[in-house]
Amino acid sequence: MGAVTDDEVIRKRLLIDGDGAGDDRRINLLVKSFIKWCNSGSQEEGYSQYQRMLSTLSQCEFSMGKTLLVYDMNLREMENYEKIYKEIECSIAGAHEKIAECKKQILQAKRIRKNRQEYDALAKVIQHHPDRHETLKELEALGKELEHLSHIKESVEDKLELRRKQFHVLLSTIHELQQTLENDEKLSEVEEAQDASMETDPKP
Amino acid sequence: PSRASSSLSLQAEVFQALQRLHMTIFSQSVSPCGKFLAAGNNYGQIAIFSLSAALSSEAKEESKKPVVTFQAHDGPVYSMVSTDRHLLSAGDGEVKAWLWVEMLKKGCKELWCRQPPYRTSLEVPEINALLLVPKENSLILAGGDCQLHTMDLETGTFTRVLRGHTDYIHCLALRERSPEVLSGGEDGAVRLWDLRTAKEVQTIEVYKHEECSRPHNGRWIGCLATDSDWMVCGGGPALTLWHLRSSTPTTIFPMRAPQKHVTFYQDLILSAGQGRCVNQWQLSGELKAQVPGSSPGLLSLSLNQQPAAPECKVLTAAGNSCRVDVFTNLGYRAFSLSF
């Protein structure tokens, strides 16, 4: 267990500051110069070394402050990204709904188009047939003509009947006259014959 | 011995390849769950393809091959329909039923096999078309004996015979509102039959109308589809849209090649026939699109609109080859399944 964590620590330290330049080296140098300063003798050197150590320390503090700020910034950046991620999810869901809505609308529009085309197809066929009003008018006119013609026919037939009857009367009268004349002739013939026989009879 | 077996398997391979070369797929049917497609060919075999596997994102070449293939009939499988549990297939004179759940396991047997009452026992006419009438739970068969037979699906008895066609019947369609059945045949007439009175109520002799008749192609009606008030039919005469109540042809679709399958879809009419393409028409007569498939001629189209599997909503087309083209979006052919 201990070995694993050591490895982890080494790995992390290598990752952060592997090449030895930077904060780690600074802290090591500080420790070494502190030890040297403790062991040094003269006042002047000690003071300059002390100043140098203070400046190194402040450099370390500065870099630590910077790292803390960067850490803060990263946390806030993460929050920001979470927020954006949620917003995008919402808008994706919204877009899905819109797509479903649009699909329904497409189906509806297709139905409407189909109805329109069916209407057009029937209308085309109907247009080929002539207009109803005109046909009705033509029918009326034809009806009137028919009536008129049938009237004429009736009147002509009546006339024909009348003429026929008149001719019939004429012919029958002629026949009667003929009969009467024939009868008269016969009578007169018979009379003449009688007269002739009466004349020949008394002679012997 | 190894050489003999390898030459035998080579022979078998050659035989299979020859079979595939001369194969024609006559009929298709989608399973009630929407995830499988059955295809029947001229050798009497039925192959079940898994649409969900072939459409998934991890589809490989094997997903485009059938899950199972079996010998269903002795003759070609001309027509197939699916009920909510069964697949009904018909070929030379007989109709067989298979359970969908059983078919996916190898070595399934048919549930039943029936023959409609033919006029003479010597006749074995082919059954060209099957139609389900859900309101009365019956199946209508029509084919080479020029009659429509109705079979009750529960009892299996043949209840009606509708006579009137003078030549064999190619296709059937159901007019749901009335309910009436339309049948189109070789005699060039589309006949409407009222199922309740078992009588012919309307006859449309397509070849007698000048606008659509094409005497050089013949008068046969190869395909029919209806949308209650409208009917589209094609074959020898041109593909025409009819208004049923007035029996007038309203739109003639300018397609020279005879069409063998037609269907209404949303606001379009899809048709296929001689020629590689699936044609999409608007009701006004305009050609909206022509999408080429992989077979030189197409005999059947199937739209998978099963509500249980919306992800498998595809159009499949099959015909004079061993392949079934899958169109995921009507604009192009996505891929092909193959026997």
UniProtKB/TrEMBL annotation, chain A:
Its main location: nucleus. It holds the Pfam family THOC7. It is found in: Nucleus. InterPro entries: THOC7/Mft1. The keyword Nucleus applies. The keyword Nucleus applies. It comes from the Eukaryota. Keywords: Coiled coil, Nucleus. Residues 182-204 are annotated as: Disordered. GO terms for biological process: mRNA export from nucleus; mRNA processing. One of its GO terms (cellular component) is chromosome, telomeric region. Component of the THO subcomplex of the TREX complex which is thought to couple mRNA transcription, processing and nuclear export, and which specifically associates with spliced mRNA and not with unspliced pre-mRNA. Required for efficient export of polyadenylated RNA. Plays a key structural role in the oligomerization of the THO-DDX39B complex. Belongs to the THOC7 family. This is THO complex subunit 7. It comes from Callithrix jacchus. The gene is THOC7.
From TrEMBL, chain B:
PROSITE patterns: WD_REPEATS_1 (PS00678), WD_REPEATS_2 (PS50082), WD_REPEATS_REGION (PS50294). Its main location: nucleus. Keywords: Apoptosis, Developmental protein, mRNA processing, mRNA splicing, mRNA transport, Nucleus, Phosphoprotein, Repeat, RNA-binding, Transport, WD repeat. It comes from the Eukaryota. It holds the Pfam family WD40. It is found in: Nucleus speckle. Component of the THO subcomplex, which is composed of THOC1, THOC2, THOC3, THOC5, THOC6 and THOC7. The THO subcomplex interacts with DDX39B to form the THO-DDX39B complex which multimerizes into a 28-subunit tetrameric assembly. Component of the transcription/export (TREX) complex at least composed of ALYREF/THOC4, DDX39B, SARNP/CIP29, CHTOP and the THO subcomplex; in the complex interacts with THOC5; together with THOC5 and THOC7, plays a key structural role in the oligomerization of the THO-DDX39B complex. TREX seems to have a dynamic structure involving ATP-dependent remodeling. Component of the THO subcomplex of the TREX complex which is thought to couple mRNA transcription, processing and nuclear export, and which specifically associates with spliced mRNA and not with unspliced pre-mRNA. Plays a key structural role in the oligomerization of the THO-DDX39B complex. Belongs to the WD repeat THOC6 family. This is WD repeat-containing protein 58. It comes from Callithrix jacchus. The lineage of its organism: Eukaryota, Metazoa, Chordata, Craniata, Vertebrata. The gene is THOC6.
